[in-house]
Design brief:
The complex is a heterodimer. By secondary structure, chain A is mostly helical. Chain A has 6 helices and no strands. In chain A, helix 1 runs antiparallel to helix 2 and helix 1 runs parallel beside helix 4. By secondary structure, chain B is an all-alpha fold. The N terminus of chain B is likely disordered. The chains are: A mainly alpha, B mainly alpha.
């Protein structure tokens, strides 16, 4: 029994490590594919009394690839309005600069 | 090891103090070497007052002329660097700077050739009165660049208007209440129109002003009025920018 438990624990730990490595190393699409392959043996282990550790591993693995593409995609599509508004702010700064330079007192005087 | 760390810390402290000292020197020297350095000729002015020699007077005159050359160079640089000046306004300003520089160069040659103190004194008066680098040429450059910048902003706001109007139309078609966003957009456009209305006439008002008009007292009020208009136009642009942001925020809330 102890031997079975330790095998199950080792299997779970290996699955976790492989899963994390796949997420870290692969692209968006490949990561999901790798997860499916590495987590496949885990359901077979869930029949043992040590099922709960493996159950906690599986959701974690599946959650990581689905979250990361969203996190990467968000800043990839900036609102074009942002650059236009920023350009206006720059022009405003330019007008302010001319107004402060226009003061004869600040320019040295005749 | 402890010694090495101590040496390192001492080195860092020395380096930091040198940086601060250098910054202090730069800060103290910068105004004197720049075009705004009214005090650049203070020593020469004091020498001319105390020595009362033609040499001292000429040195003071040359210093004041060189100070104006530095200012004209800086103004010329601003014209070249401006991305918003229209071609015709830039050409008019460059022409004015060139003629001012040319006149001062001639005056400098005249001063160098003078042989009497009264003649040099009369020439020194001309440095300011015949060219008005600080009271007329400088303000012209700044006011015209500022006005053209406001007009450049108007073109950018037109693009923003197109963008926001399209978003409003899309959400309206989807059955959303876009009343608030539309009000913000209308306010933005009204502020932009007001700003352009104030800035648009400025180049035409200030570019033709002459030194004679300044000395006669008629150019000063026009410059003052143009500056007030530019300040108002700037404030309108600020309002327009705030309204554009408010419109976008209102549209985001509808999604």
């Amino acid at each position: 029994m102890n031997r079975q438990v330790s095998t199950a624990t080792r299997l779970a730990a290996t699955a976790l490590l492989v899963g994390l490595a796949a997420v870290a190393c692969s692209g968006r699409g490949n990561g999901a594919a790798n997860q499916a392959g590495t987590t496949a043996p885990i359901p077979a282990v869930t029949t043992t009394p040590m099922a709960s550790p493996t159950m906690t591993v599986a959701p974690t693995d599946s959650a990581v690839p689905s979250d990361s593409p969203a996190g990467i995609d968000a800043p990839a599509t900036p609102d074009p309005l942002d650059s236009d508004l920023s350009g206006i702010q720059n022009l405003l700064n330019g007008v302010n600069s001319q107004l402060s330079g226009n003061d004869p007192g600040s320019a040295g005087g005749e | 090891m402890k010694t090495r760390i101590t040496s390192l810390l001492a080195g860092l402290a020395l380096g930091s103090s040198l940086i601060f000292v250098s910054a202090g020197i730069a800060g103290a020297v910068a105004p004197a070497t720049g075009p705004a350095g009214k005090g650049v000729c203070a020593t020469d002015a004091a020498a001319a007052r105390n020595d009362k020699t033609i040499g001292a007077l000429k040195a003071f005159a040359n210093c004041e002329i060189n100070r104006r050359f530095a200012t004209l160079d800086a103004l010329s640089g601003k014209i070249t660097a401006s991305k918003t000046l229209t071609t015709s306004d830039a050409a008019a300003l460059k022409s004015e700077i060139d003629s001012t520089r040319s006149g001062l160069t001639s005056l400098k040659a005249t001063i160098d050739a003078e042989t009497t103190i009264p003649a040099v004194k009369a020439d020194v008066v001309k440095i300011a009165a015949d060219y008005r680098v600080y009271l007329l040429v400088g303000p012209k450059v700044h006011l015209v660049i500022g006005a053209d910048t406001v007009l450049a902003a108007q073109a950018k706001f037109a693009k923003i208007n197109t963008n926001l109007a399209a978003r409003i139309a899309t959400l309206k078609a989807a059955g959303k209440d876009t009343t608030a966003a539309q009000a913000d957009l209308d306010a933005m456009n009204a502020a932009v129109t007001a700003a352009a209305g104030l800035a648009g006439p400025i180049p035409g008002q200030v570019l033709p002003l002459t030194v004679a008009q300044y000395n006669g007292g008629t150019a000063g009020p026009i410059l003052t009025s143009a500056k007030a208009a530019l300040v108002s136009a700037r404030n309108d642009l600020k309002t327009a920018l705030a309204q554009a942001k408010a419109c976008r925020t209102a549209l985001k809330a509808l999604k």
